[in-house]
Amino acid sequence: MKQTIITILLALAAMTGQGQEIKMNEATINDYIPLLNAKGYQAYSFDVSAIKGRNVEVYFREFVNGKEVENSPGLLFPYYFEARGDKLIIGFLPSETDSLARYCFSWENTLSYNSSLKLKQIYWESENKYIYSYRSDPSEPTSPLEKENFIPLMYYSSFWYDAEDRITRCCGSISDIIKQSPHYYILGIKYY
To answer: What local confidence, expressed as pLDDT, does residue 12 receive?
Structure first.
């Protein structure tokens, strides 16, 4: 009896093992996202349906060592526009030069705009060299939305050199990053 039970259990184990296999799936668009991110493409999608039909202005604010630059880029477009779509995409693209970051601003059914941001080097002491290193992060949602108030959407922040650990870093919450980052931009909007 004991030998019969062991034989049945071994047969079941063998059958279970044979039922497992790895299959190839058809790649979807989402499967390409890690590849695009690795090559420097970042895209952030915002639901802006709450302000559809309103007039909107787009702003960039630049900060160096925690203080806003006096002649910060400010108003991105010299005019306001009527928001006619429900979705806003802000994306960052690879640049031909280390000293510039390329970005795309695309408001559904309204407008699309490409430009670049000037970057600043940091000194990486342990490597004895200057580098450009930045990262993009979406802002925490502003709630409730208030007319004529600046609504931050994206942060584009420089890494900083951590002398204690002898590395460059840009990690933590947005509030932690902007306390440490020597240079960053905030992209946001106002609506009327």
So the answer is: 65
